[in-house]
Design goal:
The protein is mainly α. The chain contains 2 helices and no strands. The radius of gyration is 16 Å and the shape is elongated. The termini are far apart.
Amino acid sequence: MRIFKNAWFDRFAKKQKLKDAAQHILELSEEHLAEMIQKGQFSEVKDDD
């Protein structure tokens, strides 16, 4: 079986990687997230509403 990469496959793969990363971030504890923000690995964004 031959598998061909194309633009659709690349977009799908990127979306899946983003979803996987988002799921990992959502599973972080508040303490771990605060530590990562303090270290500069994340930045807190204030809502404009």
